[in-house]
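INTERNAL TRANSFER SHEET
From: sequence group
To: structure group
Subject: alpha-L-fucosidase

Please process the attached sequence and return the structure record in the designated field. Keep the field labels unchanged so the import script can parse them.
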Amino acid sequence: MNTTIRNLLLGLALLPATANAQQKYQPTWASIDSRPVPAWFENAKFGIFIHWGVYSVPAWAPKGVYSEWYQYWLQNRQVSGNNNPQKDMVYNYHKNRFGDNYSYYNFADQFKAEDYDPAAWANVLQKSGAKYVVLTSKHHDGFALWPSKEASKAFGRPWNAVDAAAKRDLLGDLTTAVKKTGVKMGYYYSLYEWYNPVYKAKDYNKYVDEHMFPQIKELVNNYKPDMIWTDGEWEQTDTTWKARDIIAWMYNESPVKDSIVINDRWGKGIRQKHGGFYTTEYEAGASFNRPWEECRGMGFSFGYNRNEDIEDYNSAQALVLLLVDVVSSGGNLLLDIGPDAHGKIPPIMQERLLQIGKWLSVNGEAIYDTRKWKQAAQWTSGDRTYKQKGGHMASGEYIIKQTIDPDPGFAVKQAFFTTKGTTLYAIAPEMPEGKWLLRDVMPAANTTVTLLGSDKKIGWKKVKDGIELDVPRMTAKELPGDYAYTFKITSAK
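Return from structure group:
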């Protein structure tokens, strides 16, 4: 082969990659939506949300209410959430504890994070089995966890973590620690700010051009995140937010243009229609034909809520089954923790993370890098409709009612399914004994069935309705862990 022909063939072979690298995304939803969500996100399956900020100082809300909304509840004398809270509960709590004239902005003087150890946080996060972390760089109160000059300038006071009491780049330090573990790092960013003077004056062009967009650029340019997770989009249209221009900049010009992942919260009516992956929040039973993510706290609040008791936290079993439920429907679970103002992750949250991580150390093969199968779960007969009590936010315990503790007349999920190539994973909330039928699972002559984490032999045979497993009785010591059990079925369809 002469040199000219060889070079021509080499050029043709490189053409698709070069063309893709040089693709220019236009500030239109048609163009933006054409960009595939980077594969790492759909493979990750499990992430940790972290809500941490000035609201972590009062750290209080009625049960079933978001504590990170403390400033809004306080200044508007209204509260919404589960359990029909009285509208003035946060105002009355604040008045009784801090005094009627104590400003929310004074909490920045107490947000010292003096016990903050980002390496310890990163260690716990890694041990949870999570593949990515999303930290609140700035919530709706406008306080920034990095040295954002725009934040302090906008509010005319020290309103970022370096200028205020912490005197530290909290976001930067955690980013460094997390990236050392190989876990992906992302940032939550609220598009709107409740009481930003420019935003309140409805000078939206100035707000976006001189405050919001510069902050996003600073985050992306300086810290090179794997994800930007926007929120607070519902107040304005994507045109007002100039969302398409911002996304086009991230996709075309930013230092992470080829790897960054974004969500769908970019303007009124945009959620679950445009952007990157789709999002749900404290919901049950969702499924989409696009990468998606369910976010929720371990209790009912994202920020740390000192008012929540042990019974308000989801059990480790519920959290594991939540993860399995979401992944079997093709989604990711973004599970939130809320550190306190001193910089400590509450022990109960650490314990839950480690319990999930222990389960994933045995069963992670059935979670990571998998895709949804032709059906998400095998149900028994009965009513499949989950009925949330007390409000619109579905408690994580809903999955317990759908599996091991059903109400009379309601259907039960006997198994969840995930798939990887020709391998099928059937995850059982309870260990079956003896003959166990998996309907519509078609084995091949060379099919093998194993139980992850166990060397027990699992017999099987093909039957009219699917595959019938023969599961031996096991003692408690012989069970491969807790909460849920994974059967690996090769060459199945």
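Handover comment: Residues 1-20 have pLDDT under 50 and may be disordered. The domain at 371-489 is CATH 2.60.40.1180 (Immunoglobulin-like).
Transfer complete.
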